[in-house]
């Protein structure tokens, strides 16, 4: 059966795709220069946000390489017209990446974007993020701190973009702008195999143009060409060029000719291999989240995003004015 190379986009001369071929989730991953010694393991929290039907459940199970979220139940036709409230559902998974244990928490947000007016959903997500900062701030101001305090701050928010091919929708723009100063936003194109090669390339371009035009703060793999080493600069340039990540999820495995197991989505015209970097960006996204940039995401959360919140909070307490909320 032929392979459908839907993500065989024109490659920049600076791209080194062969390096990413080793990012297969079923292989031993190379060590990262960013990893710090963590004998007790690392704690990492990710939130997934997107409209219903974009495959968040499949993506999370594919990311964790196990069944973490239950299959979504099909609702009754009699209640299909009723608006369902958005909820926050955390799932805890013990993982090991490159020999380091990770206490991984993924927070799903079922119900987001299914209303006529989703303003309340924006407020709920911002409140959730800030409440986790508030817990940390309260702990830091204690005279005697709790040695077993668990840091529940969200280190990255994966925003699932509907593959319309026409750029960002108003819902996408509003949500990412609202949360961009509270969390590392990483935009991803869900179900990217629904687009052709040219459509996907053009859609990525339009999304990034919208992000630039509307000044949407996202995690764009920052680097300092003078301060950072050459490897870090090159890696971040390559990952920045991939934004938004085009992903495909699949929990089913098939046997390859060499006896290895592959996660594959089969179509009448061919197949998409989930962990093949020539087919989609899933392997790169997974490696970035759970290996190469995990520490960076945590540091930015603590040193920049949390410190900004803390400064605003303490300043408002001194002036007696409530914290400003972005429109």
TrEMBL record:
Pfam families: Septin
The organism's place on the tree of life at top rank: Eukaryota
InterPro entries referenced in this protein's UniProt entry, alphabetically: G_SEPTIN_dom (IPR030379), P-loop_NTPase (IPR027417), Septin (IPR016491)
Septin-type G domain location: 40-316
One GO cellular component, as annotated: cleavage apparatus septin structure
Signal peptide: none
MF terms in GO: GTP binding
Record keywords: Cell cycle, Cell division, Coiled coil, GTP-binding, Nucleotide-binding
CDD domains for this protein: CDC_Septin (cd01850)
Keyword Nucleotide-binding among record annotations: yes
Similarity section: Belongs to the TRAFAC class TrmE-Era-EngA-EngB-Septin-like GTPase superfamily. Septin GTPase family.
Protein name per Swiss-Prot or TrEMBL: Septin-type guanine nucleotide-binding (G) domain-containing protein
